[in-house]
């Protein structure tokens, strides 16, 4: 199995995860390609990506005019060649070295897609609960996979649903809804680690409340562009306003 890893990037230096992600991906055992899709950035993200691409043949950098994360992911998918596509969150680390083997084993269940177990890089009871809920209720029971779980999907099925929905926010929820038409997601045994930066920026409790408000607004069909502006405010993490 050849795995295509799509890494969407927008001013990633500030998060302190880019070098760690690239080193983690290069160290993974197995046949893979790493495609970083970079929207216009002004913090040196391009220099870091190009440095890795010049030293490692499996790394490819695409400079993109994409406006949001979904468009960056789709551009990377279109340029990729693997049988399985992994949509990599830009502030998450995969399990070390054996992630491809964990994906192989998970997909032996017959599912067309799945994701890793989730955890944060900061210890707090609410963040532990958030990860537990995401793993055991949202993913296992409801079949909804957020991008910070680094979902992996059969190229065949991705093509049938038209890849990632072009939305500024909740594109992963809509993607999950479409993928569930084919099969339930399978949970790989490995655990990813995601930056808790957004919780630090706003405060853990304030950000947790905002997440719940946004989910309610999504159910009420409020415009995703407005919701993402509310979510990102001045940080421009997924969309550059």
TrEMBL record:
Residues in Glycosyltransferase 2-like domain copies: 4-87
Can you name this protein? 4,4'-diaponeurosporenoate glycosyltransferase
Q: What does this protein do?
A: Catalyzes the glycosylation of 4,4'-diaponeurosporenoate, i.e. the esterification of glucose at the C1'' position with the carboxyl group of 4,4'-diaponeurosporenic acid, to form glycosyl-4,4'-diaponeurosporenoate. This is a step in the biosynthesis of staphyloxanthin, an orange pigment present in most staphylococci strains.
Q: Which organism is it from?
A: Pseudanabaena frigida
GO cellular-component term (any) = plasma membrane
**One Pfam family named in its UniProt record:** Glycos_transf_2
Domain of life, per lineage: Bacteria
**Presence of keyword Cell membrane:** yes
Instruction: Provide the GO MF annotations for this entry.
Output: glycosyltransferase activity
Protein family: Belongs to the glycosyltransferase 2 family. CrtQ subfamily.
| Subcellular location(s) per record | Cell membrane
Give the pathway listed in the UniProt entry for this protein: Carotenoid biosynthesis; staphyloxanthin biosynthesis; staphyloxanthin from farnesyl diphosphate: step 4/5
Q: Does the keyword Glycosyltransferase apply?
A: yes
Q: Which UniProt keywords apply?
A: Cell membrane, Glycosyltransferase, Membrane, Transferase
């Amino acid at each position: 199995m050849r795995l295509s890893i799509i890494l969407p990037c927008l001013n990633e230096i500030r998060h302190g995860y880019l070098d760690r992600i690239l080193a983690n991906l290069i160290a993974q055992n197995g046949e893979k390609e790493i495609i970083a899709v970079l929207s216009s950035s002004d913090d040196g993200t391009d220099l870091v990506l190009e440095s890795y691409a010049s030293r490692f043949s499996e790394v490819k950098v695409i400079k993109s005019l994409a406006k949001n994360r979904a468009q960056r992911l789709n551009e990377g998918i279109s340029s990729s060649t693997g049988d399985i596509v992994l949509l990599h969150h830009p502030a998450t680390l995969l399990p070390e070295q054996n992630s491809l083997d964990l994906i192989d084993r998970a997909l032996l269940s017959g599912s067309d897609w799945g994701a890793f177990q989730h955890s944060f890089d900061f210890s707090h009871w609410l963040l532990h609960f958030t990860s537990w809920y995401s793993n055991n209720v949202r993913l296992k029971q409801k079949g909804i996979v957020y991008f910070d779980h680094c979902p992996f999907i059969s190229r065949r099925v991705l093509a049938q649903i038209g890849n990632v929905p072009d939305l500024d926010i909740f594109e992963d929820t809509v993607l999950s809804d479409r993928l569930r038409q084919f099969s339930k997601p399978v949970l790989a045994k490995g655990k990813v680690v995601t930056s808790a930066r957004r919780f630090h920026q706003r405060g853990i409790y304030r950000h947790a409340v905002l997440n719940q408000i946004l989910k309610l607004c999504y159910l009420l069909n409020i415009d995703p562009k407005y919701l993402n502006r509310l979510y990102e405010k001045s940080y421009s993490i997924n969309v550059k306003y």
